[in-house]
Amino acid sequence: MKYRNLLIEDTNSNATHAEVESIENELGMPLPNDYKEFLKSCNGGYLEYDILINFEKGQSEYLCFSSLYSASNENDWECNPFELNEARKQEGFPQTGILPIARDGGSSMLYLDLRDGYKVVAFVQGLTEWTGLRQEDSIVIVANSFGEYLEKLTISDEMIKDHIENFKVSEDSVNSTIDWFDSIGLEWREKFRKQWNERVPFNEV
Question: Which tens digit of pLDDT belongs to each residue from 165-185?
């Protein structure tokens, strides 16, 4: 389905008022309206878009927090209540005002931080030394609201290039890929026209 022009897969049944209220009670404060709207429309899902994370030392990196949590009360991973209870088992994790909302493919996480205003915060796990990249764990503010976070999502050039080179070409996969790429704008068509048309000569852009 589409949500704010973004393609989201594996969505769930709309969150109920009781499920949202249960999260708010556990969190100790109301959820922001834009996040409640998302839960009542999509209620989690798979969102394959990147966000540019800017670190304190001037480094930047695209990350993809693709697994968005649902409001379900099921005692399972990728459900807000369960993830919140798991997070609170960590020493020093705040007992109110912080809600896990998504993860990447590893151990980096995305949170709503409602303790002092409203912001979306990423915990980014450091990388191993052999990568030659940043090794420190970092906490970074990525947006001032969930709505702003969604507006900042994009598909990095690296992801576009890799997908064009490696996806299994069929009529359905070509159409879905074009819809996905087009959801962030049409600039990719100019930048990657040569690579795309060589790989998909029956449906040039």
Answer: 999 999 999 999 999 999 999
